[in-house]
């Protein structure tokens, strides 16, 4: 088993840091079982793409980077049983030979499958669930060392809770995903007036498999991105110079150094963004290269209130002259039946705000978070928020059921770090 002693761990943006006693990388399920049996406190790490302190621990950090690949394929039902440590960007090499691919993805594909499932990571589409909604069953290694197979018919309560559990019920080892045959998507990006978007987005979301908007507070235009199934010939993305990502870094640096430039830079959006159309396999179209680091807050707003919430957020950002060049991201996600999913029994509009990693994220988060909460928003578990246990209990009808089940599965709290202890166990 490969291991590292007393190292500093940090997440992708560098904002979250920890000093675990050990970082272990078991080579097999057997080695992982030994780790669970021999350590009193454990947190599992994937790609470190969560912005909240989900992973931070001074105890033992376990990476599943060696538990990767496809274990079993059900070709008739288009289901793949995948080892939990598999990174999303590697899935194609394992699934493509069986003519399978994920139903849905977000625009970052660096996460491990277990990390994406456990935090309710999502893409966009009014008829599409978050990634966790396509889990058919999973294998869970519990604190007692038991391996449980969980599905709608076997340990159904653990299945209902465990698809979004923040690693608090045990360690996901294998996940069976409902996939679909390999398919192509046509991506169209264009600018459109903000007023047109606000007026028509509810209709446009029905006309496209995926639709999302990138909204700059100081611009009267938004970037509109649609993805649709297609049988057209491949037309892959082309590298551009300067790339959109390098322009984002440049504008973020300028905004950080000269905040008064921000409104003027955003009003030059039509110079930076040109209409584009690409066609490629879904696994190539979903992800967007991201090297400009940031920190992020995201809330899921009931779909009927999402546009009103967005307009209030934009007004607050302008009023407070918040210094960030990053756009807001606006998406649709279908409700599901997962106890702690931010989309539990609620079709949602997802609104994300970002801050350049060299700037204080709370300059923007403190402005927008009260508005998100005013509209009964639920935070993305992998992103920054300040909600308390009492506030979260009001948002989740199955909160107490989840905590009861968690206590049964892990009474010694082996899988809780200080952040989750505060989040789950506080009386406030």
UniProtKB/TrEMBL annotation:
Pfam family, one: ALO
CC annotations in GO: membrane
Domain FAD-binding PCMH-type intervals: 16-182
Annotated source species: Acinetobacter silvestris
Single Gene Ontology MF annotation: D-arabinono-1,4-lactone oxidase activity
InterPro entries linked to this entry: ALO_C, FAD-bd_PCMH, FAD-bd_PCMH-like_sf, FAD-bd_PCMH_sub1, FAD-bd_PCMH_sub2, FAD_lactone_oxidase-like, Oxid_FAD_bind_N, Vanillyl_alc_oxidase_C-sub2
Protein name from the UniProt record: FAD-linked oxidoreductase
Keyword annotations: FAD, Flavoprotein, Oxidoreductase
UniProt entry tagged with the keyword DNA damage: no
């Amino acid at each position: 088993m490969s291991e590292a002693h007393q190292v500093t761990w940090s997440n992708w943006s560098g904002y979250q840091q920890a000093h675990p006693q050990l970082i272990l990388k078991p080579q097999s399920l057997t080695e992982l079982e030994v780790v669970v049996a021999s350590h009193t406190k454990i947190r599992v790490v994937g790609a470190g793409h969560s912005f909240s302190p989900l992973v931070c621990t001074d105890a033992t950090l376990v990476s599943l980077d060696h538990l990767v690949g496809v274990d079993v394929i059900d070709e008739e039902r288009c289901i793949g049983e995948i080892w939990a440590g598999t990174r999303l960007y590697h899935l194609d090499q394992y699934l493509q030979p069986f003519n399978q691919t994920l139903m849905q993805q977000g625009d970052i594909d660096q996460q491990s499958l277990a990390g994406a499932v456990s935090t309710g990571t999502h893409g966009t589409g009014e008829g599409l669930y978050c990634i966790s909604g396509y889990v058919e069953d999973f294998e869970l290694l519990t604190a007692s060392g038991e391996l449980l197979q969980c599905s709608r018919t076997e340990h159904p309560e653990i299945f209902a809770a465990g698809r979004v559990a923040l690693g608090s019920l045990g360690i996901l080892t294998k996940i069976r995903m409902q996939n679909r045959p390999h398919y192509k998507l046509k991506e169209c990006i264009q600018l459109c007036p903000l007023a047109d978007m606000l007026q028509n987005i509810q209709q446009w979301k029905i006309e496209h498999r995926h639709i999302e908007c990138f909204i700059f507070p100081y611009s009267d235009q938004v970037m509109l991105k649609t993805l649709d199934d297609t049988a057209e010939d491949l037309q892959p993305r082309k590298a551009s110079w300067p790339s959109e990502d390098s322009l984002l870094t440049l504008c973020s640096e300028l905004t950080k150094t000269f905040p008064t430039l921000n409104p003027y830079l955003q009003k030059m959006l039509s110079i930076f963004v040109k209409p584009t159309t690409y066609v490629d396999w879904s696994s190539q179209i979903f992800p967007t290269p991201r090297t400009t680091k940031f920190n992020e807050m995201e809330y899921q707003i009931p779909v009927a209130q999402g546009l009103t919430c967005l307009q209030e957020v934009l007004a607050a950002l302008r009023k407070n002259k918040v210094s960030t060049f990053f756009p807001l991201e606006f998406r649709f996600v279908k409700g599901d039946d997962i106890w702690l999913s931010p989309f539990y029994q609620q079709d949602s509009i997802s609104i994300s705000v970002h801050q350049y990693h060299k700037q204080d994220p709370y300059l923007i988060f403190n402005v927008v978070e009260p508005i998100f909460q005013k509209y009964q928003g639920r935070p993305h578990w992998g992103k920054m928020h300040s909600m308390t246990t009492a506030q979260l209990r009001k948002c989740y009808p199955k909160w107490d059921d989840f905590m009861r089940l968690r206590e049964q599965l892990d009474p010694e709290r082996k899988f809780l770090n200080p952040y989750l202890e505060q989040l789950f166990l506080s009386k406030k």
